[in-house]
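Colleagues,

Please find the record for the two-part complex below.
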Amino acid sequence: MKLYWKLVLMQLKSQMQYKASFFMTAAGQFIVSFTAFLSVLFLFSRFHEVQGFSYSEVLICYSVILTAFSLTECFVRGFDVFPRLIRGGDLDRILVRPRSEVFQVLTSHIEFSRLGRLLQALAVLAYAIPTSEIVWSAERVAAVFLMLAGGVAVFSALFMLYAGLSFFTIEGLEFMNIFTDGSREFGMYPLSVYGEGVLKFYTYCIPIALFQYYPFLYLVGRSDDVRLIFLPLLGFLFLLPCYAFFRFGLRRYKSTGS
Amino acid sequence: MRQYLSFFRIRFTAGLQYRAAAWAGISTQFAWGGMTLLLYRAFYEANAAAFPMPFSSLASYIWLQQALLALFMSWYFDDEILGSVVSGGVVYELCRPCDLYAMWFVKNVAVRLSRAVLRCAPILAVAAFLPAPYGVSLPAGPGAAALFVPALLLGLLVIVAFSMLVYLSAFYTVSPMGVRILASSAVEFLAGGLIPIPFFPDAVQPLFNALPFASIQNTPFLIYTGYLRGREALAAVAVQLFWLLTLVLVGRALMRRALKKVVVQGG
């Protein structure tokens, strides 16, 4: 763990060498996700509600998923750019070192400029919380943190799955965008708006709904079942098959030798 | 002229080679289109009266958008071109006996066309068989069908003419990454890529319609679905022509200025 912080600090320092570029990229990230926010705003200024969820309730959903995603993108970026590690031969260097592969992949890329997006997500959260008329209690505050933790876990697992797939194919990887970028884009709305089938898919196949939808129901007072706030913890289980798949790919990996 | 045709052919056939990527893209876009429609269905159920167009028109819009995504994608920039400006390799291009602007332009059109050709047919074919309000329907009428094709082509040319400005900005900035990220996300939104322009609040719609970005995908798709018809549709195509001319003229002028000033470091 000590080594991890050391490496994180090193990455931060190296990225801070190019301050202007860093802040421009972060600002770019901020604006990129700002257009997504505008589209939510525009749709709600026309329709006012969707399935009984109000604008500020949806914004809470939006900022939870965006916060979880940008935290993951910042700290688990190594798995996101994993195909590059394979192609560049950097994976071979990782394999010969006496540390775990996952640890080294995690510390190979930490993209602090993604925090621009995080900033936007937090700003939206700060706006949504006072306007949403939620009666805050200890359980509800805990729910928000559990949702975020579960979200980071599920997105990390997805990135790992993506990295595992890249052992087998390079060209077909665009398909994974449905699950990573798609979950981010469509997860801005409570997943039930897409209908029963989609909600089931996101509960049992890709467990986005576990942290995004069910605890959210408790948060906004649609359900009184306090057990719902612990569902995000189940999302951590999703890490297991994804990690296993990554190991499976790693075992079959043959270096290109270049 | 022949040289540009062969640039076009090379890029076009190269683009056709990436079939596995195309299949992955097709399934992604299909899922994306489906999810988008489900989202709009929820909004439709919440307040059908606020819908600016019939649901079936929206479905056609979304499927056309997904099928022709490659034609109008705002995030595509030719790395070779940007790289050649940054590295200075652009001097070799300048030695060639052809016009740099036209060459870049043709290459971009070819890449976009080839990707779209690979992807559009399967998506539209499946979408045509979806049940009534969710599938893609035929054009709103013979007039709409006839006007759709030129509007589509003009839209393609407008986005390419705009991306030329981004390439040119690389002459002035050290790293084109920032401009690139900003331009692609702004264009995506302003062109109606995230939500169609008729879904914008009524108060701000004239503003967005006045921008050149409305002439990219917005015009052809709205003509196809019959949202723009008759005189309105013709006017929209005329606006497309206007923006194409303007962007090309500005791009050419900027390029002339940039090339006059450009200093390529030796070595």
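The mean pLDDT of chain A is 86.

Comments are welcome before we finalize the supplementary table.
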